[in-house]
Amino acid sequence: MFPAASRRVGVAPLAQAVRRALGLATAGSLALMSPVLLAEEAESTEALETVTVEAEALSIVTEGSDDYRVSRTSTATKLDLAPRETPQSVSTVTRAQIEDFNLDTLNDVLESTPGVTVERVETDRTYYSSRGFEISNLQVDGLRLPMPYNNVHGDIDTAVYDRVEVVRGATGLMSGSGNPAATVNFVRKRPTATPQASVTGTLGSDDHRRLALDVSGPLDDEGRVRGRLIAAVQDSDSYLDRLHRERGVLYGVLEADVTDSTQLALGHTRQRNDTDSNMWGALPLYDSAGNPTDYDRSTSPAPDWSYWNGETQRSFVELTQRLSDDWSLKGTVTHLDMVSDTELFYIGTVPDAVTGRIPNSFYLSKYDRHLEQWVADVHAKGDVEAFGRTHQLVLGSDWSQSRNQQSSLYAAATEDLPPLDEWDGDYPEPDFGDPDFVNDATIKERSVYGTGKLDLADRWTAVVGARMSWLDTVGKQYGSSQDTTLDNELTPYAGLIYDVTDRASLYASYTEIFNPQTEMDRSGQYLDPIEGASYELGLKADVFDGGADAALAVFRTEQNHVAQPDGRVNGREAYKAADGITSEGVELTLAGELTPGWQASAGYTYLEVEDAEGEATNTYIPRHLVRATTSYRPASLAALKVGARLRWQDDIERDRDRDDGKTRQDAYALVDLMASYDFSDSLTGSLNVNNVTDEKYLTSLKWDQGFYGAPRHVMANLTWSY
């Protein structure tokens, strides 16, 4: 019917490609270094003139430095703004943080991000939340990407990214929907002007093995053409019974200065995830008498035949034209092709309170999925002189089309299960028949937008903008028609900033919320779009002699038609819409260098989410949350770096689906430690110990099932770099 990821192929083809790439690493490095070598051997040592197109201010990079902060960002508005000039809460996980703490996946990164909760509902499906609501806005290099179902399947590898920026609060101006949670922007690594190369090997607990290659530099004598190749392969068992994962990623990008004012970039990423004995759903959290269950951390409800294999390929073309000293034009087209193939086992009931056995109430299912997306954006950015002051403007338009095809097959369960902590995963593998459902839906969205940073007076700045959107959905999901049209949907944005001093600013921002949903009710119909408004007041300051950014934010969000869990239908999650949902809270953040050699990124969040009756809702999201990472490189021993990471949250709970009880997870703290040592300019070793105190905890209570997080585990890395 459509392409599918083969169960038996695995990551072998990609692994072979990566191994070939590793074999060519030395030759590639020499090729990239050839201009330098030739220049050194020449009698005349005149420096080569490098032509660089002054495009947008996204040339900021964090790799190669110990910094835990960035000086500028454009995720919230596409304007080139310092953190203090952005009237919203912004956090960045830099390359130094990623490497210090082995944050190899998006889940790892967002677990280190202030104000963000990672909901690992299963081994291969994850939701993210901020300010009480699900995150549904993703960007790559500032280009918005649709995110069907508001979750991520598999792990997104961070090897290809320089940093991950997170703007909390509604960002409908740039993301196309005013989701009040947050927008996550992946910033790709780009070719470097000088040659560089690195190879990193990792060994860890549960037979964890990883090998990564990164080669970059100029490809011609003038440096007008530059390239970069990144490859990584990973293979690991798990603390969870039977679970095995393989992952591979390959990324190549070329940049060329076509003229002195024109730059062209081409890139492609391929990532494959293969998982055996993955979960579909998770462990029952209580038994037939309502007593809480308490399994070993390794217990899994997955049989030995279940799997979830997937492959994602993303290509992009980017053209930047400098129109004048003050104006540039940028156009980007990206194509995403994602296929997945699964055979799954879901436990649809709870264990007997006396015997621990689970009666035959299981969903055995097979899903084949193909998601194809096209996204295009063109915008102009520049300065305008008016009323004796300089203002910054962005005018643009974007378009996207997403087609989601999925077949659903089901089989009858034949046997009960023994107590899960005694089960070895042996269960009859079914013979799936013809598809019960064939889903095929296409979503088209087009928008025009404009935003500006207006210099009102010596200490007053306004950031204002608006987006007009048109949305069409055509197709069927689970046998129900999904044909809808939304026209002329306006999303305004306004922010005001007052510079109290040269290092401190007060701000206020407001944006309306209009967020189409992909959640479906029990009859298979999409829920109406979320509507509402988001408000934020805050104070931002440069602290520690300008080495760090500190921020205090107070926020409130009001929404209608918010998706709330409503049980399961034929093995899928169903939702109902709730009106009058409000979220309010306080955030404190700090990021940067506190003293020479001491880097830190930390945040505290207080949150309240209530329904129209004033009752607490979304209680699976912690009301108090702390995220902190820190590292120190002593001046007296600059080769050494030590660090720690803290993830703390307070109690969470959820109402049970089958009785009037509640399931609770007590407050817990996860502490990770790291140390690295530079044996030479080109060789570095590091050691990471995660969950040092060996805390036992449930990863999420978003659903009426859950599983336990990883126990204490260790990883060792060795990196050669040039």
Characterize this entry briefly.
By secondary structure, this protein is mainly beta. The chain contains five helices and 38 strands.
Tell me what the structure shows:
- It is a single chain.
- The strands form 6 sheets. The protein has a 22-stranded antiparallel beta barrel.
- The N terminus is likely disordered.
- It is mainly β and 722 residues long.
- It has one domain: Beta Barrel (Maltoporin, Chain A), CATH 2.40.170.20.
- The chain starts with 11 loop residues before the first helix and ends with a strand.
- A hairpin with a 3-residue loop joins strand 10 and strand 11.
- Pfam families: Plug, TonB_dep_Rec_b-barrel.
Q: Radius of gyration, rounded?
A: 25 Å
**Overall pLDDT confidence:** 89
Strand segment tally: 38
| Strand portion | over 45%
The total tally of domains equals 1
What is the CATH domain class? Mainly Beta
| Large-scale geometry | globular
Count of helix runs = 5
Would you give the CATH topology? Answer: Maltoporin, Chain A
Q: State the end-to-end CA separation.
A: 47 Å
User: Which residues sit in consecutive blocks of at least 5 with pLDDT less than 50?
Assistant: 1-58
Topology:
Layout: H1 12-23, H2 25-41, E1 89-93, H3 95-100, H4 106-110, E2 116-120, E3 125-130, E4 133-134, E5 137-140, E6 143-145, E7 152-153, E8 161-168, H5 172-175, E9 182-188, E10 196-204, E11 208-218, E12 225-236, E13 244-259, E14 262-276, E15 283-284, E16 307-322, E17 327-347, E18 362-386, E19 389-411, E20 437-455, E21 460-477, E22 480-481, E23 484-499, E24 504-515, E25 530-543, E26 548-560, E27 562-569, E28 572-578, E29 581-595, E30 598-610, E31 624-632, E32 640-649, E33 652-655, E34 662-665, E35 668-678, E36 683-690, E37 705-706, E38 713-721
Parallel strand pairs: 5-9
Antiparallel strand pairs: 1-8, 2-3, 3-4, 3-7, 5-6, 8-9, 10-11, 10-38, 11-12, 12-13, 13-14, 14-16, 15-37, 16-17, 17-18, 18-19, 19-20, 20-21, 21-22, 21-23, 23-24, 24-25, 25-26, 26-29, 27-28, 29-30, 30-31, 31-32, 32-35, 33-34, 35-36, 36-38
